[in-house]
Amino acid sequence: RKEVEQDPGPFNVPEGATVAFNCTYSNSASQSFFWYRQDCRKEPKLLMSVYSSGNEDGRFTAQLNRASQYISLLIRDSKLSDSATYLCAVNPRGYQLIWGAGTKLIIKP
Amino acid sequence: DGGITQSPKYLFRKEGQNVTLSCEQNLNHDAMYWYRQDPGQGLRLIYYSQIVNDFQKGDIAEGYSVSREKKESFPLTVTSAQKNPTAFYLCASSIQGTNEKLFFGSGTQLSVL
């Protein structure tokens, strides 16, 4: 089992819809969790840190479920510009982030 | 504006050749990282450095070398020992290197001729 797993997608979603995807992690001692957005052949950019209490930034909501060992990202009122690959990153041991392979999201007009 | 600069954007390597990827940051960050990204895979850590003149191997360090002679610079050399070097290479930095937001450069696509 991979340390961090994501559904690769693609998720094809109509504009304006709500979409959610998860990222599971295997190390129960993990303390830090992040969602990054990556456009094709560009660098990843931090979208959100994920806190135990969950957090929201505009149309984006991130949640942490420690019992089931996953984090989630929900996007409401999706825009064409939300099309990208969403990477999750987990910090199970000190200085090294472990990355999922990403979930590809395609928003269709 | 502060940021991380990687160069070149595209690089081609011949068989048996060593090539060096540049990474410079003016964010005054202590920690710097090199990742490799292959299609359908997550980012994998090659090397990281938390302080000048010190660096540690990541999960896939074989065939690569780095130096950290200045805080701003963390060049990566892909040696001839790396038999499958074709990938997208990303340099990143963070303030201190623990549980923190990473800032990435725009990446270098390395291909083998």
Description:
- The complex is a heterodimer of chains A (109) and B (113).
- Chain A is mostly beta strands.
- Helix content of chain A is 0%, strand content 57%.
- Chain A contains no helices and eleven strands.
- Chain A has strands at 4-6, 11-14, 19-25, 32-38, 45-50, 55-57, 60-65, 70-75, 84-93, 96-99, 103-108.
- In chain A, a hairpin with a 6-residue loop joins β4 (32-38) and β5.
- Chain A is globular and about 40 Å long.
- Chain A starts with a strand and ends with a strand.
- The mean pLDDT of chain A is 93.
- Chain B has 113 residues and is mostly beta strands.
- Helices cover 0% and strands 49% of the residues of chain B.
- In chain B, strands 2, 4, 5, 6, 9, 10 and 11 form a seven-stranded mixed beta sheet that branches.
- The mean pLDDT of chain B is 92.
- Chain B is built from no helices and eleven strands.
- In chain B, a hairpin with a 6-residue loop joins β4 and β5 (44-51).
- The chains are: A mainly beta (109), B mainly beta (113).
Mean pLDDT of chain A: 93
Largest sheet of chain A: 6 strands, mixed
Low-confidence stretches of chain B: none
Mean pLDDT over all positions of chain B: 92
Number of helices of chain A: 0
How would you classify the helix and strand content of chain B by structural class? mainly beta
Major beta-sheet overview of chain B: 7 strands, mixed
**Overall geometric form of chain B:** globular
Shape of chain A: globular
Helical percentage of chain B: under 10%
Order of helices and strands of chain B: EEEEEEEEEEE
Instruction: Count the E strands of chain A.
Output: 11
Instruction: Bin the helical content of chain A.
Output: under 10%
Q: How many runs of DSSP E, i.e. beta strands of chain B? A: 11
Distance between the termini of chain B: 36 Å
